[in-house]
Structures are given as structure tokens and as C-alpha cells.
């Protein structure tokens, strides 16, 4: 039995701004729509919590 090791990477193909949501979707095996929706909801209460998390992930998570 072999196990495939996945690494969290920003997506090159499934991206709108920085590829963070696409990379998370590929890592967890779900649609990127759900991560984009979560970030939009995080932007609603003033935007700061969602923007800060997104920007930090853009800086920390490497690109494909």
C-alpha cells in the first residue's frame, strides 16, 4: 500500500487572486467554491479578518 503525500501549495490553474483558495481546495479535495465562500463571509464583518488571513497565506504558502 502506498500513500501519496500532498503538500499545501497555491494553485496556478485554479486561481482568481493569489491561488490560495484553489490550493486549499486541491489539498482537501473539495470544490474551491467553498473556500472562496468562506473568505467572502470572513470579509463581511469589516474585511480585516479575512484579508489578513488571505494575505498571510499568500506569503507563507508556496506556489506550485
Explain the overall architecture.
The chain has 64 residues and is mainly α. 53% of the residues lie in helices and 0% in strands. It has a domain at 20-60. The protein has helices at residues 20-28, 32-43, 48-60. The longest helix is centred in the C-terminal third of the chain and has 13 residues, at 48-60. The termini are far apart. The relative contact order is 0.21. The model has no long low-confidence stretch (mean pLDDT 85).
What descriptive keywords fit this protein?
64 residues; 3 helices; mainly alpha
Radius of gyration, taken over Cα atoms and rounded to an integer in Å:
13 Å
What is the mean predicted local confidence, pLDDT?
85
The global form is globular
Note the run of SSEs as H and E.
HHH
- Beta percentage is under 5%
Helix-strand category:
mainly alpha
Please tally the helical runs, counting DSSP H or I stretches of 4 or more residues: 3
Q: Tell me the helix content.
A: 40-55%
Query: Cα distance, first to last residue?
Result: 26 Å
Number of strands: 0
Low-confidence stretches: none
**Largest sheet descriptor:** none
Helix-strand layout with pairing:
Elements: H1 20-28, H2 32-43, H3 48-60
Amino acid at each position: 500500500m502506498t500513500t501519496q503525500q500532498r503538500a499545501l501549495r497555491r494553485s496556478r490553474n485554479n486561481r482568481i487572486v493569489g491561488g490560495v483558495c484553489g490550493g486549499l481546495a486541491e489539498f482537501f479535495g473539495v470544490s474551491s467554491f467553498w473556500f472562496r465562500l468562506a473568505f467572502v463571509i470572513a470579509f463581511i464583518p469589516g474585511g480585516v479578518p479575512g484579508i489578513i488571513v488571505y494575505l498571510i497565506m499568500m506569503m507563507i504558502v508556496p506556489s506550485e
